[in-house]
């Protein structure tokens, strides 16, 4: 269903240190992600992810959409913006995890959109 929270993403400078911190704090399980330095997080209530190279990064909440292109158009129509950072990954990654985009609302607050892989 469009609009439901799909997952969260944490940006950190060093993913190994981030993993140690959040494993120690919450007991989350971490598995390798499709990116070289990232992790998929198994948290009790919702799936998550961690990416590196983002010192001081803020957590992002990703909302599910049925059609990424339609949703991105709507964000722009409503006065929001779409970050040009490529977070979609390659075709294999998209087939496994879907598509992702970082956006800003019309006041500059960040959030993410997630289109699950077809058939999910």
What would you note in describing this structure?
- There is one protein chain.
- The protein is of the alpha+beta class and 120 residues long.
- The protein has one domain (5-115): 2,3-Dihydroxybiphenyl 1,2-Dioxygenase, domain 1.
- It is built from 3 helices and 8 strands; from the N terminus they run E-H-E-E-E-E-H-E-H-E-E.
- It has helices at 15-26, 68-77, 91-97, and strands at residues 5-11, 29-32, 39-42, 47-51, 60-64, 81-82, 99-104, 110-115.
- The longest helix has 12 residues, at 15-26.
- The radius of gyration is 14 Å and the shape is globular.
- The termini are close together.
- The model has no long low-confidence stretch (mean pLDDT 85).
What fraction of residues sit in β-strands?
25-35%
Number of continuous helical runs: 3
Write down the overall mean pLDDT: 85
How widely separated are the two ends? 11 Å
Shape summary:
globular
Topology, element by element:
Elements: E1 5-11, H1 15-26, E2 29-32, E3 39-42, E4 47-51, E5 60-64, H2 68-77, E6 81-82, H3 91-97, E7 99-104, E8 110-115
Parallel strand pairs: 1-4, 5-8
Antiparallel strand pairs: 1-5, 2-3, 3-4, 6-7, 7-8
What's this, in brief?
With 120 residues, the chain is α+β, with helices and mostly antiparallel strands. The protein is 24% helix and 32% strand. A hairpin with a 4-residue loop joins strand 3 (39-42) and strand 4 (47-51).
Keywords:
alpha+beta; 120 residues
